Amino acid sequence: MKKIAPIAVAAASLAGTGVGLRALTNYMINKSEYVKPQKGLKITKELKMIAHRGFSSAAPENSLAAYHLAGEMGFKYAECDIRKTKDNEWILMHDKTLDRMTDGKGLVSEKTISQIKELKYIKGANIKLYGDEKIPTLAEFLEVCKLYNITPVIEIKDEKSDCLHKLLDTISEYEMIDKTIIIDYCIENLKVIRTLCPEIELMILCKVLTKSVILTADEIGNCGVNVFHSLLIRNKALTEVFDRGIALSCWTVDTKRALERAHKLGVSFVTTNSLVPCN
Fold it and tell me: Which residue, 250, 221, 225, is CA-closest to 237?
């Protein structure tokens, strides 16, 4: 059985890791909203925990520091957001623009990779510890995943991208095609990827689970559904997901109550900002 660890236990597990432990300690002191189940929560081994944008409660989202922390905390899955630069390089960034998270301005799609690499994070958890972090490329993210044996969960933020072949080539270079999950709201992107790569695992992102989404996932093949957790209910659609053998994931689960609910509904994956797997 797995447990969701209290943060004190999680911090103790990082003894000797230097900056990682310091970041978690600072977060515990400064952030009262950190999720701390009092006695832990027993869950079945089938429920897999995905670190949302890395361990983004302790380091800036989508930063390499957040993924190192996720690895140190025992996550076996880590989600990232990717966007394409002006010169067709995939980088990790949630927003279309650089303004919220970095000292840069403007659209990611209008900057070259060299311009992106000049920027620093200005926001995020424990930013004072990670102000020198650079915006990572997809390749750099995959390197960290390899280091910790983490399954990359890659969300494509660009609609109808024309560089999906390059995405797959990069994943293939790291020999991670069979250990990667690609998620997207854009059905067209997922269908193109399936044509290019029959074996890679996919997931459709959606807020509400509908018959249409289920049929599309079944049609694409080896394709799960990833649903907003508070809109996930026990109904005919949920039953059909299980009947068709479609993997079910939900986001973003940050409380013990939400995790218990997802577990009871039979979810296979939960994406979290702050719950910690205790392996």
Answer: 225
When mean pLDDT is compared across 14-23, 105-114, 218-227, the lowest value belongs to 14-23
Residue 90 lies in a domain: no
Q: What is the DSSP letter of 200?
A: S
- Put simply, whether the predicted model's pTM sits higher than 0.85 gets the answer yes
pLDDT at 46: 75
Q: How confident is the model at residue 6 (pLDDT cuts 50, 70, 90)?
A: very low
CATH number at residue 156: 3.20.20.190
Asked whether residue 251 is assigned to any structural domain, the reply reads yes
CB-CB contact of 57 with 22 (8 Å): no
Cα dihedral 9, 14, 18, 19 sign: negative
Number of domains in the chain: 1
Question: What are the structure tokens assigned to 179, written together?
Answer: 């250990």
CA 190 to chain centre: 17
Range of the domain at 261: 2-80+138-278
Assigned domain for 65 exists: yes
Give the span between the Cα atoms of 40 and 227, in whole angstroms: 25
